[in-house]
Write a structure and sequence with these properties.
Keywords: Membrane, Transmembrane, Transmembrane helix. By secondary structure, this protein is mainly α. The protein is 60% helix and 3% strand.
């Protein structure tokens, strides 16, 4: 395949939308980064994260298993609300604080550099494009795109997918991270830069630290069966939440899966591509917006990833009319249940027919 790219030239959709957004922040006299709302939430989530970790170490079984379960939820909340904004440099106006927030991904098992390549560079640039966006590559276990090969067992994928989602973070942290590290590429796209000595040290040091924190230390304080059960339970919760939340934005029946032409060129400009491949859900649900770090406003996030998620509800209201006027209305499900149904129907349809 030729290098996938968007054709150079005018970008009328993005130019109009970005002008509106810039004017909004200027008129409101506020920064695009996070504010007190985000910082307060981060403190609450990090307290839940640290206290649940202390509880899984100190409580006897079976109470420690409840703590492992809660810690899985807390870890997902850290990823959604702290790491994600930090990785996009939108958590704060401080580069140092953004880097610190992004490094929480190392703390919860993965790697900051890998995430920047996989998510920021590939997924955000070429959403739902085969061989570039690793988020739609399930190694043949699921058929997420109509351009992927269909196997006989995909007929049942809308049923078994929910069980396999519980393995997401385990596979991610203990297989995909290493695969990307040694291949120096995500899917079929090479890294944008070579890893420095610091990046190499950070990768191996954080992987070792994770094993010490979540395996060695708990084993020194509890029996093996409790620790292994708790560790797998934590990852089942974390993996399921990670998988479902990110899938509901793109792997649904309202999203499209554009492909490049023979020369690798995409047919739309980048912003139009995002509006075709990304879907919001439950935008009126304030609790979900708080807990998911605005990931139910994925359209706004994909268009303006350097804007903190605390501003997405306002941007949603601001951009709806403009997007519709340009022929690319914001696609959205009214509730979490409707989005889950859209994901289920998409997998069911792709499993039955080419």
């Amino acid at each position: 395949m030729n290098q996938v790219h968007f054709s150079p030239g005018q970008r009328p959709v993005y130019q109009q939308l970005s002008t509106q957004v810039n004017q909004y922040f200027q008129q409101q006299n506020i920064a695009k980064s996070g504010d007190r709302r985000l910082f307060r939430k981060a403190v609450v989530i990090l307290l839940l994260f640290s206290s649940s970790y202390a509880a899984l170490l100190l409580l006897p079984s079976p109470w420690s298993l409840i703590a492992w379960f809660i810690h899985g939820i807390a870890t997902a909340l850290v990823g959604f609300n702290v790491m994600h904004d930090g990785a996009h440099e939108s958590f704060s106006g401080s580069r140092r604080l953004n880097r610190l927030a992004a490094l929480t991904f190392n703390l919860i098992g993965s790697n900051r550099f890998y995430w920047a390549q996989k998510h920021n560079r590939n997924h955000h640039s070429f959403t739902n494009v085969d061989d570039v966006d690793e988020d739609i590559d399930a190694l043949g276990l699921f058929r997420m795109s109509p351009h992927q090969r269909r196997f006989w067992f995909h007929r049942y994928q809308h049923i078994y997918v929910w069980l396999l989602y519980t393995l997401t973070s385990l596979f991610w942290f203990f297989a995909l991270d290493y695969k990307a590290y040694f291949r120096q590429k995500i899917a079929q796209r090479g890294f944008s830069q070579r890893l420095s000595l610091t990046d190499h040290v950070e990768f191996w040091a954080s992987k070792l630290l994770y094993l010490l924190v979540y395996i060695a230390l708990p084993l020194s304080l509890s029996d093996t069966s409790t620790v292994i059960t708790g560790f797998l339970l934590m990852h089942a919760v974390l993996g399921f939440l990670f998988a479902v939340v990110f899938q509901l934005a793109h792997i649904v029946d309202q999203a499209e899966f554009p492909q490049p032409d023979a020369n690798g060129a995409m047919s739309d400009e980048w912003a139009a591509h995002q509006l075709r491949t990304t879907v919001d859900f439950a935008t009126q649900n304030r609790f979900l917006t708080w807990a998911l770090g605005g990931l139910n406003f994925q359209v706004e996030h994909h268009l303006f990833p350097r804007v903190s998620h605390v501003h997405y509800p306002a941007l949603h209201q601001l951009l709806q009319a403009s997007c519709s006027a340009q022929g690319h209305p914001i696609r959205s499900y009214p509730s979490l249940w409707a989005a889950l149904k859209g994901h289920y129907c998409h997998l069911h349809q792709l499993g039955r027919y080419d």
